[in-house]
Amino acid sequence: MTNAASKQAGFTLMELMITVAIVAILSTIAYGSYSDQVTRSRRAAAGACLLERAQFMERYYTTNMTYVGAPDPLPACDADVASHYGTPEFSGAVTQNAYTLQIVPTGSQEANDTKCATLQVDSRGTRSATGTASATPAECW
Predict the structure, then answer these.
(1) Domain count within the chain
(2) Looking at the domain assignment, is residue 7 inside a domain?
(3) 94 conformational bin, left if phi > 0, alpha if psi -120 to 50, beta if neither
(4) Which of 1-10, 51-60, 118-127 has the lowest average pLDDT?
């Protein structure tokens, strides 16, 4: 038998380690992007829930010509929002012509979403967030 016939084809350890390193780098980048998108989608669901409650307040005002006496905010809109945000609640006193609603993140959403944190909407439809100073309402809503 010749030496050429006994040679086996395959990957060297160095080639295998380079491949593993490339896969690890790509996985790290992909996971970071994925978790950011999950945080943003949960925030969007919470914002929609808050706007739904604000619409309820406007219907109450249309019927009663005051916001005073409106029932406390209803529980979160669905189970996905409830597991990452608290119940929509009034922020401050409800007056005849004004209110502010807010929804506060809890658990992993609170830890991961410091940029926007608590979402708020008032009777004029003004949206705001109480996160870091660098975040604008347009980024959070």
Answers:
(1) 1
(2) no
(3) beta
(4) 1-10
